[in-house]
Amino acid sequence: MRPPSAAERHVRSSCFLLLLFLTWLAMTSAFPIPLNLMKRSGERLPWGPHRQIQASATTHRRLTSSLNTRILAENASVWNTLDGSPPLVIARGGSSGLFPDQTSAAYLFAATFSLPSSAMYCDLQLTKDGYGICRTGIDLGVSTTINYTFPGLISNYNVNGVLTEGFFSIDLTALQVLNNISATQPYLARSPSFDGLFDILQPTDLVDLASLASNTTLFWINVEFPTFFAQHKLDMSSYILSLMVDMPVDFISSPEITFLKAVKTGAPKNTPNLVLKFGAADDVEPSTNLTYGAILKDLKTIASYASGILVPKDYIWPVDNTGYLGAETKLVKDAHTAGLAVYASSFVNDPATPIYNYSFDPVREYLQYVPINGTDVDGFLTDFPTTASEALACFRGATPLVRKEGTKPFIISHNGDSGNYPGCTLLSYQSAVSGGASHIDCPIQMTQDGVPICRESPNLAPNTDVSTHSNLSSRISLIPQLQDAKGIFSINLTWAEIKTLKALMYSPGGDIDRNPAYTQESIITLSEFLSYAKNTSAGILIDIQNGYFLEMEVGLDVVGEVLRSLNASGLSVSDRVVIQSEDSSVLRRFQQLANYTLVFKVTDTNVLVTKTEVSDVKALANYVTLPRGLVQVANSGYLLNKTDIVDLFHAQNVSVFVSFLRNEFVTIPFDYEADPTLEIDTLIRSYQVDGLVTDFPATASNYLSNSCSNLKTQATTGLQYEIHEVKPGDLVTNLRPRIPAAPPAPTIRLNVSDGELALPPTFSPRPSPTAETPARTPSSSPSAAPRWLKPNIFLLSTAFVTSVIYHYHG
Ligand SMILES: *[C@@H]1O[C@H](CO)[C@@H](O)[C@H](O)[C@H]1NC(C)=O
Ligand SMILES: *[C@@H]1O[C@H](CO)[C@@H](O)[C@H](O)[C@H]1NC(C)=O
Ligand SMILES: *[C@@H]1O[C@H](CO)[C@@H](O)[C@H](O)[C@H]1NC(C)=O
Ligand SMILES: *[C@@H]1O[C@H](CO)[C@@H](O)[C@H](O)[C@H]1NC(C)=O
Ligand SMILES: *[C@@H]1O[C@H](CO)[C@@H](O)[C@H](O)[C@H]1NC(C)=O
Ligand SMILES: *[C@@H]1O[C@H](CO)[C@@H](O)[C@H](O)[C@H]1NC(C)=O
Ligand SMILES: *[C@@H]1O[C@H](CO)[C@@H](O)[C@H](O)[C@H]1NC(C)=O
Ligand SMILES: *[C@@H]1O[C@H](CO)[C@@H](O)[C@H](O)[C@H]1NC(C)=O
Ligand SMILES: *[C@@H]1O[C@H](CO)[C@@H](O)[C@H](O)[C@H]1NC(C)=O
Ligand SMILES: *[C@@H]1O[C@H](CO)[C@@H](O)[C@H](O)[C@H]1NC(C)=O
Ligand SMILES: *[C@@H]1O[C@H](CO)[C@@H](O)[C@H](O)[C@H]1NC(C)=O
Ligand SMILES: *[C@@H]1O[C@H](CO)[C@@H](O)[C@H](O)[C@H]1NC(C)=O
Question: Which chemical reaction does it catalyze (predicted)?
Fold first, then answer.
């Protein structure tokens, strides 16, 4: 194959850029990755620096680094980095958390939605004919389709002393890499839907891509295996030196000292930043045979050949074996004293093992490394550069927003702060209140003897230690009205029995464990909840679960008991109390008997909602709670079109809450990049929902304090940034991931009353818990006929209770 002349490449590249620009202009609102950018048609020819070209003959917008403009442009006063500029966001292979890394989509997305002057990071490898390509890991089998195209090329090489099996770039020509293999997603937890859709790139391709998005993008080349390539007669340092003629290279990093020294010696005066990349402390540096731990002890020597170090984040904030942060090391401070910048690596939004101090919120993790008063790291190497950008620009130093009571959007806890503490315990409610929840919730379950308690589910097994109480194992039963599987249900245990149990952490996310540290928290009754809640300024949401079943089939008067507890706590006339139920009959009964704000809870995600159903809801309740799956419809993990369901409710003045938000994204849309801030932002800014029901109220509350959104205009970080607006349908429409066709939209309409009869308006005060009365025998047959005679008795008895309380206190 004849290499193309400089003129040929110029023409080809100009056409390519022009095409991209036109497509960009045509799609200003959507994320603009044209399909033809993913897989270019026709043969791709390699672009190589060893055929040196005149700077004027290239289409590159510039050949000098924009690093200096970056430093001068920003306000230095607020950052305690080495040079006072804001920490650098380094996109590891672009937005590699969302797309296969080091592809056009990943780089263009990162450059478009990250802070200006972010760096695009390429892991450089060389082909056997000496061309550079961007791929991470010496085995190309991990991140490409090579196993399918060239299965015979699998081989074994000694890589830094370790015999390694795989597919190696040194066995492939550049033409093969560019034309016959494509990128795949190496991480199982991330979406494989883009596998095979994107070409492998060369370092010079980054410049074209990044310049589409931002003129200030920086370029960071990491050379991971210089010794290995040298052993195969491929000299990385001379490649890098000639690459610097072809494109701006702002940072060069490597885990190998000898390589960095060679680049420093050979590079021209405007040497880019040279950065020593650290492996684990006991890994051996291949060119000196010293461990990285030993090398780190001598920062002065490092400063003689490098301007900075790139270290795994636990070099700065170590983590103990219970998932908590230990004490901060002095590395950043010491390195700054030695004149070295510190870049921290391995930031992801989807870690395999959580660090509990961050509450599964990646924004909090970034902020840990840029304290207002301490020493700040100089950069973050991250798979999710948009999250790093928003943390730096919108959340650092943001002052907590003090919101007036009743201000929307509400932040409604789900089982208290159940993301961090065992749900529905005093600890979880206290944490929800101090974290900024506007409302705390008690999901009502009933005991066999009629005591309303706050519990996450009617089945006690998943969230208490009931299974360790062998004397209660006989209570296991199957109650199909409550759930499909067997369980130990609160309605089969008395309060005296339930009181002996401890609440436990419940992790909805399968493999992802929430913090198991708290095992001694008590289960509380509704009355205990109310006496705590009354003393706070938070709103109180009482969620009556399975009320119709309990009233009609079990014979437990949950409505009556809730009203009784509210009266007894003195909250009977409080406008802070909100009653929620999924049963229309329960809400109707409240409409008749009391004057609380009512919320209808929709539980089904596969129903059609039109104006008619909205009217049905409006007749019952002031607010509606919708599951997030009904608001944000996804297919195979990608958001489809934006729904109009929130608008439909708003058109009839019904406020909308969305449930449940969970930081660890147990049900994904990938579009949100496992970043809870992006989902909250989308629900609040694009959907304009009136409340979020969340396991992590503090994350929602922190969001409201951010200094970027129009909810609060004053910028505190000196950085210009807008939180990336996720547009449902963008990725699916523009990039066509390989996913099955979307299932048809639901045609079955939401049935608000669901055939429920009116509840029998009984009210029988339960026996005092101390009395030795036998447990109430549940009535076996549903009482179909409402008993209309009793409401007055109810009203009388509440009046009586109330007057007793007032009398007593007065
Ligand atoms: C830099 O920030 C400080 C404090 O926020 C402010 O007083 C000053 O005006 C800023 N300077 C520039 C050049 O923006
Ligand atoms: C290559 O693919 C085959 C099946 O297609 C599989 O059995 C094999 O494990 C793969 N090899 C590697 C190195 O991924
Ligand atoms: C590699 O790509 C070239 C150019 O598209 C094509 O002609 C050739 O057949 C491909 N080889 C393989 C093994 O797929
Ligand atoms: C980049 O700079 C060029 C020339 O100064 C300008 O025309 C273009 O709009 C800029 N692009 C972006 C994305 O800022
Ligand atoms: C490092 O150790 C290996 C084997 O122990 C040896 O072959 C190599 O020469 C050493 N390299 C240096 C630079 O000392
Ligand atoms: C992390 O959480 C643990 C447990 O709450 C606490 O003891 C520790 O101080 C926290 N560490 C930091 C750095 O906040
Ligand atoms: C930072 O230091 C100032 C003054 O020393 C102090 O008032 C402030 O509370 C500190 N902020 C934090 C977050 O520690
Ligand atoms: C069940 O056993 C626990 C101790 O494991 C005891 O405290 C409790 O009283 C027993 N309950 C009954 C109903 O026997
Ligand atoms: C639990 O309660 C339900 C409903 O009252 C009843 O049908 C079932 O038999 C009870 N199970 C046990 C084990 O007591
Ligand atoms: C209510 O708050 C006051 C002051 O914060 C406190 O002294 C009191 O113990 C609290 N009462 C309850 C029941 O928590
Ligand atoms: C219900 O509350 C509203 C406002 O809080 C009040 O205007 C209305 O009179 C109350 N109705 C009853 C029946 O108490
Ligand atoms: C998305 O929804 C809007 C209105 O809700 C509709 O006009 C548009 O055609 C839909 N787009 C697709 C691709 O379904």
Answer: a sn-glycero-3-phosphodiester + H2O = an alcohol + sn-glycerol 3-phosphate + H(+)
Which tens digits make up the pLDDT trace of 722-738? 898 899 998 888 888 88
Up-side HSE of residue 450: CA atoms within 13 Å toward CB?
23
CB of 714 within 6 A of ligand 1: the answer is no
Q: Cα dist. 92→107, 263, 348, 496, 791 in Å?
A: 9, 22, 10, 56, 66
What is the pTM for the complete model shown? 0.87
Closest atom of ligand 3 to 179 CA is 2
Give the ranges where 91-136 is alpha helix by DSSP (H): 104-113
Using the predicted structure, report yes or no on whether residue 177 has a pLDDT greater than 50.
yes
DSSP assignment of 651-688 equals HTT-EEEEEEE-TT-SS--GGGTT-HHHHHHIIIIIS-
Q: Which atom number of ligand 10 is nearest to the Cα of residue 532?
A: 14
- 372 pocket-lining for ligand 7 (C-beta < 6 Å): yes
Q: Which amino acid is at 608?
A: L
Residue 763 pLDDT: 53
> Taking the CA atoms of the chain, what radius of gyration do you get in angstroms?
31
Q: Which of 471, 492, 497, 501 to mutate to test the pocket of ligand 8 (most atoms within 8 A of CB)?
A: 471
- Ligand 6 site, residue 357, Cβ cutoff 6 A: yes
Tell me which CATH code domain 86-313+327-346+381-386 carries.
3.20.20.190
Which ligand sits nearest to residue 535's alpha carbon?
A: 10
User: Which of the following CATH numbers is that of domain 410-794: 3.20.20.190, 3.30.300.30, 3.40.50.300, 3.30.460.20?
Assistant: 3.20.20.190
Please write the tens of the pLDDT for every residue from 191-243. Answer: 999 999 999 999 999 988 888 888 789 999 999 999 999 999 999 999 999 89
319 lines ligand 6 (CB under 6 A): no
Q: Write the residue with the smallest CA distance to atom 1 of ligand 2.
A: 147
Name the strand (E) or helix (H) holding 176. Answer: helix 174-180
The CA distance from 741 to 340, in Å, is: 52
Strand, coil or helix: 702: helix
Which one of 74, 75, 78, 85 would you pick to mutate in the ligand 1 pocket, going by the greatest count of ligand atoms within 8 A of its CB?
75
Burial group, residue 147, by CB count within 10 angstroms (0-12, 13-18, 19+): middle
> Going by C-beta distance under 8 Å and a sequence separation of 6 or more, which residues neighbour residue 268?
244
Q: Give the rounded percent of residues in the chain with a pLDDT score beyond 70.
A: 83
For the chain, the domains span 86-313+327-346+381-386, 410-794
Residue closest by Cα to atom 3 of ligand 1: 77
pLDDT in tens, 8-63: 333 334 334 333 433 333 333 345 554 445 555 567 777 654 433 333 333 333 43
